[in-house]
Amino acid sequence: QVQLVESGGGLVQPGGSLRLSCAAYGYMFGNLGMGWYRQAPGKEREVVATISSAGGTINYADSVKGRFIISRDNAKDTVSLQMNSLKPEDTAVYYCNGVNRQFIWGQGTQVTVSS
User: Are 94 and 19 in contact (CB under 8 A)?
Assistant: First the structure.
């Protein structure tokens, strides 16, 4: 059974930065596209960024382009999200999953952007 564990969230002021990490246990996801998703209170879960299996193809939601950077380390089965210039509207619970959302969702990590 695959377990996804997200970490790195927290409270940050507008304009600040955070780095999120996702570890996959029980599965070597080196051949899978992976993504970061987020869900704000009262809103649907949305995709933030995706990265192909070898990292050669990356896509971002328009709302985070130029501010967030997704990366992966297949040797460690981890995927990361560097978030810069954070805005209050980035406040959400952040999750990782395959690009097809094929795994059971983890607990996510809370990101709160507030002064």
Answer: no
